[in-house]
Amino acid sequence: MPNSIRVESLDQEGRGVAHLAGKVIFIQGALPGEVVSYVTHEKKPNYEVAHVGQIIKPAPLRVAPRCAHYTICGGCSMQHLDARAQVAAKQRVLEDSLWHIAKVKPDIVLPAIYGDTWGYRHRARFSSRYVEKKGGALIGFREKRSSRVADMRSCEVVPQRISRLLVPLRGLVNSLSIHDRMPQVELAIGDKTDALVLRILEPLAEHDEELIKRFADHHRVQFFLQPRGPDSAKPFYPVSDGLLSYSLPEFELHMEFAPTEFTQVNAAVNAVLVRRAIALLAPGPGERVGDMFCGLGNFALAIARSGASVIGLEGSRELVARAHANAAGNGLGQSTQFMVADLFKIDTSRLASLGSLDRMLIDPPRDGAIELVKALQGGGPARIVYVSCNPATLARDSGVLVHAKGYALAAAGIVNMFPHTSHVESIAVFDRVQ
Question: Which CATH superfamily is domain 4-62 in?
Fold first, then answer.
């Protein structure tokens, strides 16, 4: 049986892991306990990267992928694994990262945060490419192991009404004079608006504008045009102030955002995450709380509802302005302060200049918050809640907090923000012990 092998475990990218003749074999599409044949597409002295050729003995937790494009599209990597098992696998990735990288274990493993596994994406960045031999415009995610655009006619992880737009969108792009000068269509869904941001490399012709307006009216979407970087995106039709919104009803918050500004992909899970984060942080009236990498105020305004005073730091000037506006719009301008700061370069003196902080929430991008945690000194916040989108950098930063800064890892658990992908979001709680 050529290239057949028994799969032992999953790695952090959701690939099956096996060993053969002293080499590690990473097999996309394979699950622990399975016997599979595999096709190698990258070979190194100590490992190989492959994909499944044939499943000879399937695992009990293997399921049929729902998406017709799953074998080609690179948007999802774990649809072949039962959704509950995906959550368990991500919890293992988190715990393994914390132990192997930082030699720390949480005192309490928090229950996983999860929600619907289909139709959950309220944000997506689809590539658009005109390929004449494939009949014109393709709109979708990139293919697995390729820069080519997948030939997608549906998508199971966006709402059905958006999935049904993929084929009409292809027709729209084909009809435009700049069909080969539109590399991207970005989706942003608000409570009342489905926005599509067209990245255009040349101006639209008058006929193009009419076609887009007709499409918007028929499908009840709003188009934005983005001629340059994300900040250049402006509402095209229907004309509006260019803002979308989402709500956090538990905190009586109405949050506005522009379609290219960062918001969480999974709006339903975000609401649960904010609730969990505030409950774990436990801010009290009169306390001073720091919200680091605060964005547009997703956590800061919920913290302020507790009666605490919040200072938020963020590297993006545009997001800081949005946070100010959201605070004012929710009647929280007096209890919040937002500042532009490069938290990847923060040092002890800059952090100390903020004054004493009773508690701190950290929500960094994938690179983590190493300079911030290194800048903490004795007498720092009594509790830190760390929301992470990368278990490796969370583990690295946890090592500094626990082994160098006098904190204990009180609790940690995963947040399944991206079902059917290997992306691991998590939340951790650190208490100062000295």
Answer: Nucleic acid-binding proteins (2.40.50.140)
Averaged over 384-403, what is the pLDDT? 98
**CATH code for residues 87-116+266-432:** 3.40.50.150
* CB 382, CB 406: distance < 8 Å: no
CB 78 within 8 A of CB 86: yes
pLDDT tens for 196-227 read 999 999 999 999 999 999 999 999 999 999 99
Looking at the chain, the domain(s) classified CATH 2.40.50.1070 span 123-244
In the predicted structure, residue 151 carries a pLDDT above the cut 80 = yes
pLDDT band at 360 (very low <50, low <70, confident <90, very high): very high
- Tell me whether residue 389 is one of the annotated catalytic residues: yes
Measure the CA–CA gap between 51 and 74, rounded to whole angstroms. Answer: 13
* Terminal alpha carbon distance of the chain: 60
Task: Write out pLDDT tens, residues 316-335.
Answer: 999 999 999 999 999 999 99
Q: How far is CA 107 from CA 25, 114, 129, 215, 387, in A?
A: 34, 21, 50, 54, 17
Average the pLDDT over 100-110 and give the result.
98
State yes or no: pLDDT of 2 exceeds 70. Answer: no
The pLDDT value recorded for residue 1 is 44
Residue ranges with strand state E in 133-276: 136-140, 184-189, 194-199, 222-226, 234-237, 244-248, 253-257
pLDDT at 379: 85
> Facing residues of 37 across strands?
4, 54
List the structure tokens of 59. Answer: 């695992």
Identify whether the C-beta of residue 197 lies closer than 8 Å to the C-beta of residue 224: yes
Q: Which residues of 252-287 are buried (b: 16+ CB within 10 A; e: fewer)?
A: ebebbbbbbbbbbbbbebbbebbebbbebbebeeeb
- The residue behind tokens 């499908």 is 219
Enumerate residues 6+ apart whose C-beta is below 8 A from 423.
389, 417
Any idea which architecture 123-244 has in CATH? Beta Barrel (2.40)
Q: What is the pLDDT of residues 231-268, one digit of tens each?
A: 999 999 999 999 999 999 999 999 999 999 999 999 99
Percent of the chain with pLDDT over 70: 99
Under a CB-based contact definition with an 8 Å cutoff, are residues 159 and 189 in contact? yes
CB–CB of 24/47 below 8 Å?
Answer: yes
Residue linked to tokens 């899970």: 269
Residues of the chain with CATH 2.40.50.140: 4-62
